[in-house]
Amino acid sequence: MSEVRNVRLLPWEYLFTRFDSHRFPDLYTVTWVATLALLVALVVMYNVRTKALHRHAPYLDMYEWLLWTGISLFGLILVAAVFNFYLIVLLVILITGLAVMAWVRFVRFPPVFEIYEQKLAKQRYFTRSKFAHPESTIRPKAVRAGGSRPNAQRSRSNRGRRRR
User: Fold this and answer.
1) Residue 106 CB neighbour total at 10 angstroms
2) pLDDT class for 123, splitting at 50, 70, 90?
3) Is 10 helix (H, G, I), strand (E, B) or coil?
4) Per-residue model confidence (pLDDT) at position 160
5) What is the C-alpha to C-alpha distance for residues 30 and 24, in angstroms, rounded to an integer?
6) pTM (2 d.p.)
7) Residue 42 neighbours by CB distance under 10 Å
8) How many C-beta atoms lie closer than 10 Å to residue 11's C-beta?
9) Which of 1, 5, 8, 108 is deepest in the core (most CB within 10 A)?
10) Burial code of 132-160, b = ≥16 C-beta within 10 A, e = fewer?
11) Per-residue pLDDT at 29
């Protein structure tokens, strides 16, 4: 036997009803549970990625932007679900937060990553060319005027000659 659903409102009228477990039984629990799970996943991802990329500042900046945007987004969704905001408010929060996260990841930071990768490539090239010569890591002996002995040794030997 099929379950009878009472759908009494037009689809756009649901936008101006409160988002609670009685009016939206299929969505309410799924929404707040998924929001909590995504919030925990976001914090774990931030911790793992920042430890892995601790020497790369642009990536750390991006993950920090994503962390704070995600905390704001998921926190507001939880507040909207707990306090039964209108569905339109919940959808505006969700769409805006996801749009900001997509903007951060795909618009704001790719040019920064390109510049950073070019900087790293230059560093690798200059390091490679600097150490390309086999003796580049060996310090050359400094040629001093008057011989190859350091001044301290020369002055000791000169003292001995004066006394004789």
Assistant:
1) 9
2) confident
3) coil
4) 55
5) 10
6) 0.69
7) 19
8) 7
9) 108
10) eeeeeeeeeeeeeeeeeeeeeeeeeeeee
11) 95
Query: Rounded CA gap, 150 and 132, in Å?
Result: 30
**Whether 38 contacts 70, CB under 8 Å:** yes
Q: For position 104, what pLDDT does the model report? A: 96
Q: State the first-to-last Cα distance of the chain, in angstroms, to the nearest integer.
A: 123
Rounded (10°) angle between helices 87-103 and 57-82: 180
Whether the pLDDT of residue 107 is over 70: the answer is yes
Torsion 67-71-74-77 (CA) sign: negative
According to the model, what pLDDT value does residue 50 have? 93
**Cβ contact 67:46 at 8 Å:** yes
| CB 45 within 8 Å of CB 58 | no
Tokens of 5: 């659903």
**With helix as H, strand as E and coil as C, how does the chain read?**
CCCCCCCCCCHHHHHHCECCCCCCCCCHHHHHHHHHHHHHHHHHHHHHHHHHCCCCHHHHHHHHHHHHHHHHHHHHHHHHHHCCCEHHHHHHHHHHHHHHHHHHHHHHCHHHHHHHHHHHHHHHHHHHHHCCCCCCCCCCCCCECCECCCHHHHHHHHHHHHHC
